[in-house]
Design brief:
The complex is a heterodimer of chains A (about 300) and B (about 250). With about 300 residues, chain A is mostly helical. Chain A has two domains: about 50 residues; about 230 residues, MetI-like (MetI-like fold). Chain A contains 13 helices and two strands. In chain A, a hairpin with a 4-residue loop joins strand 1 and strand 2. In chain A, helix 2 crosses helix 13 and helix 7 packs antiparallel against helix 11. With about 250 residues, chain B is α/β, with parallel strands linked by helices. Chain B has a single domain, classed as 3-Layer(aba) Sandwich (Rossmann fold). Chain B contains ten helices and eleven strands. Chain B is globular and about 55 Å long. Classes of the chains: A mainly alpha (about 300), B alpha/beta (about 250). The complex binds adenosine-5'-diphosphate (ADP) and magnesium ion. Adenosine-5'-diphosphate binds next to helix 1 of chain B.
Chain lengths: ~300, ~250
């Protein structure tokens, strides 16, 4: 009797395994949380040093247009403008293409067609960014130079390179969101006398809209954070862009260009950390936008 | 009685498999016809022939004559989107679009090219009233249709079809996903609608067929066994097999 009682009171093997597994995952999650928190803390303290130790006015930092930290000029606006410029332009060019390809792959192409396109898109994702940059430098920059004048370096060249880089991101996520539209919406629409095109643009695209928006934001986040490829075609001079073909710098390209040439603890170094902080805040912002869209999509 | 849909010797193949073995059924205007029979006997398959929804199923081939108002449903002159505006369909699972109630019901109107806001408002209201769901949604016309109960969703779907003003409405087990109270409301809605529309409804609920239909067709394994006035069918069927099925001996 007491033997049975003992057995019943003791945790079973399954319970023990369950507890063990739970402890391991809590431990791992804890480690990751600590890691992320310390990265944010580190960049934040380093990034704030410009304003606290070097007494740079944060407003002036964000609105000034002259960047030469070794001469105490820390206006980051040109980089901010250029970063947003290439990001928006790239997303603007890429989105229609991405939606068109995604519609083709999910709604129009037969199995063969999408089997043919799928690996191409996946290949585009896998190409290292330095390769994109190199192609941009040897093909896009001269082409821009002949077509639009200037040196060829600048926002336009950067946007074109980024367009190719974010296209697969936006396309694959858009494909996913189109595939996630339940087939009974299609049937309902067709049964009401809609043509296939009407069904696609009045029902499917609309139902998939939150997913497509998320895809675009992910693409923008990728464009905003891309450093290497952009650095190779943007011109790398921290000047306010005067046109789409004037050499300039993004936040990322300025960071990669200058990071080797500054001394820890000095203003030039701290100012770069402040650029990094802006990048971090922007990626947090992109994440929040995605969360917000997902939440609104669910409610609707 | 004028016939609105006439079908003759309908055979349908899913690939090589013959699912309908020569069915001939005519449907009268402003009547409610029920198609009954055990699961898998081909009721839905037959129904989907009438608005060419089977065209969407890969590998289907269809033989036989289909006429709507004496016009061949499957002729190359009949465009499937025009046909489906005349022959609407309500599905087993309520399937409103993830849009507002208003946008759901207005959908078909926009397909027809109606742009006048007042006209659309009026038709949306009329359709929701006819589908007996107006009182439940009128204060929330701009709320997502998916946030309503299953029964309300199904009546919104009926309203969405009514708005297109079809001649014929096909319903494929419209109440089988609903609770008894909602089913009842949908049944009452259909009873009212048959004054204006011709209704063909698949059901595997014999009591439902008995309650609301004028005529009943009993199908078994892809064959039409008996087609009769509902009263006659349930009181003294011509065929032994019908009687066995109605008495629950199989199915
Ligand atoms: N898309 C399809 N592909 C192949 N066979 C199908 C398809 N749809 C239905 N069938 C077959 O056709 C027969 C009739 O099905 P169905 O019309 O759905 O019957 P019911 O609606 O009476 O339950 C069944 O044997 C079913 O397996
Ligand atoms: Mg069925």
């Amino acid at each position: 009797m007491s033997e049975i009682k003992n057995k019943l009171l003791k945790p079973s093997k399954a319970t023990k395994q369950d507890r063990f597994g739970r402890r391991i995952s809590v431990l791992c999650i804890g480690l990751i949380v600590i890691l992320v928190a310390s990265i944010i803390f580190f960049i934040a303290t380093k990034g704030m040093a410009t304003f606290i130790s070097n007494h740079v006015n944060p407003i002036k930092f964000l609105t000034g247009t002259d960047w030469s930290p070794s001469q105490k000029m820390t206006g980051a606006l040109p980089m901010i403008v250029t970063s947003f410029g290439v990001t928006l332009l790239a997303a603007l060019i890429a989105t229609p293409f991405a939606i068109a390809i995604a519609i083709y792959m999910t709604e129009i192409a037969n199995k063969k067609g999408s089997k043919f396109l799928q690996p191409i898109i996946e290949l585009l994702v896998g190409i290292p960014s330095v390769v994109y940059g190199f192609v941009g430098l040897t093909v896009v920059v001269p082409a821009v130079r002949t077509l639009f004048g200037g040196t060829g370096f600048g926002i336009l060249a950067g946007s074109i390179v980024l367009f190719v880089m974010v296209l697969p991101t936006i396309t694959t996520l858009t494909i996913d969101s189109l595939n996630a539209v339940p087939s009974h919406y299609r049937k309902a629409s067709l049964a009401l006398g809609a043509t296939r095109w009407q069904t696609i643009y009045k029902v499917i695209l609309r139902a998939a809209l939150p997913g497509i928006m998320t895809a675009i934001v992910f693409g923008m986040a990728r464009a905003f954070g891309e450093a290497l490829a952009v650095q190779m075609v943007i011109g790398n001079s921290a000047l306010m862009p005067t046109s789409l073909v004037s050499p300039t710098s993004t936040l990322t390209s300025q960071l990669t260009t200058e990071v080797g040439n500054t001394i820890m603890g000095t203003l030039p170094n701290n100012a770069l950390w402040s650029l990094a902080l802006i990048l971090l805040l922007m990626s947090l912002f992109f994440n929040l936008v995605v969360k917000y869209i997902a939440k609104r999509g669910q409610l609707k | 009685m004028t016939k609105i849909i006439e079908t003759k010797d309908v055979r349908l193949f899913y690939g090589k498999k013959e699912a309908l073995h020569g069915i001939s059924l005519d449907f009268n205007k402003n009547e409610l016809t029920a198609l009954i029979g055990p699961s898998g006997c081909g009721k839905s398959t037959f129904l989907r022939c009438l608005n060419r929804m089977n065209d969407l199923v890969p590998g289907v081939s269809i033989q036989g004559d289909f006429k709507l108002h004496d016009k061949d449903i499957y002729s190359s002159k009949m465009k499937s989107d025009d046909l489906r505006k005349q022959v609407g369909m309500v599905f087993q699972q309520p399937n409103p679009f993830p849009f507002s109630v208003y946008d759901n019901v207005a959908y078909g109107l926009k397909l027809k090219g109606i742009k006048d806001k007042k006209e659309i408002d009026q038709i949306v209201e009329d359709s929701l009233k006819k589908a007996a769901v107006w009182d439940e949604v009128k204060d929330n016309l701009h709320k997502n249709a998916l946030s309503f109960s299953g029964g309300q969703q199904q009546r919104i779907c009926i309203a969405r079809v009514l708005a297109v003003k079809p001649d014929v409405i096909l319903l494929d087990e419209p109440t089988s996903a609903l609770d008894p109270i909602s089913s009842n409301q949908v049944e009452n809605t259909l009873l009212k609608l048959k004054k204006e529309f011709t209704i063909i409804m698949v059901t595997h609920n014999m009591h439902q067929a008995a309650r609301i239909s004028d005529k009943t067709a009993f199908m078994l394994d892809g064959d039409l066994i008996e087609y009769n006035k509902t009263k006659k069918m349930f009181l003294s069927p011509d065929q032994q097999m019908t009687s066995d099925y109605l008495n629950g001996k199989f199915g």
